[in-house]
Amino acid sequence: MVEQLREFSMDFFSLKGKVAIVTGANQGLGMAYAMAFAKAGADLFIPHFTDDISEIKELIESVGRKVAFIKGDLTDNNYVDAMVEACMKEYGRIDILVNNAGGSIFGDFDTYPDEAWKKIIDLNLNSVYYVSKRVASIMKKQKSGKIINVGSALSFTADKRCPPYTSTKHAIVGLTRVFANELGDSNIQTNAIAPGFLATEVNRELRADPAFYNKITNRIPCGRWGELQDLMGAVVFLASRASDYINGWTISIDGGFTTTL
């Protein structure tokens, strides 16, 4: 017991020598996850759908880490195969996978288009399953790995006008538990994070509406919207040795939003 106490150090949180795939990390919250890993010592591989990779490339290289990219559609299984192959060719291993890419199409339930439902289900849920399955085959050979799925406050609640988004984010919690049970004996831990309301450029206009902003803020026990840094420490922890005995859980990063009525 004493030896274990002596062995523990802040190195348990280091990602030096690790390789992380973060889907969709050339924009949005994915950039925060990727940059957190880079600052913790990992090299990055980023599958992306939109063209611009300049900002995240500069950020990662500015802290002395490597980054490689591959453009394509995560709902295309041929692309998923090419992504895994390209990462292995570039780095020779995959230690961390963050299933960050996702989206939403808003619409009223009674008139919601079938095509929109299928599109969001494919991106937010099916791609997580297929990407994880392929990456897990590599991690099983390595006898180690970390998979981090990205849920939402809507993994535990519901809102109007986003039927498939809410459904997929609930499903992410279940899928995380499935992976934990299926892969745990291969020393692969699967967990999820569920971000709440974060102050980002995407929702700047929403936050400018005092009625909406105050409605949300008043429900958050911490009394503020989240910042990107609030996510970054959590994903580093879940990707590191420090979380080796945490498996199958979803951590809400929402200031307490989902604990209130």
UniProtKB/TrEMBL annotation:
Keywords, alphabetical: Oxidoreductase
Q: Which Gene Ontology molecular function entries are recorded, alphabetically?
A: oxidoreductase activity, acting on the CH-OH group of donors, NAD or NADP as acceptor
Q: Using the record, list the residue span of the signal peptide; answer none if the entry has no such feature.
A: none
Q: Does the keyword Membrane apply?
A: no
Q: Which residues form a coiled coil?
A: none
- In terms of domain of life, where is this protein from? Bacteria
Q: Which Gene3D superfamilies match?
A: NAD(P)-binding Rossmann-like Domain
One GO biological process this protein is involved in is: bile acid metabolic process
Alphabetical list of InterPro entries matching this protein: NAD(P)-bd_dom_sf, Sc_DH/Rdtase_CS, SDR_fam
The similarity annotation says: Belongs to the short-chain dehydrogenases/reductases (SDR) family.
Q: What is the protein's given name?
A: SDR family oxidoreductase
Species of origin reads Clostridium bovifaecis
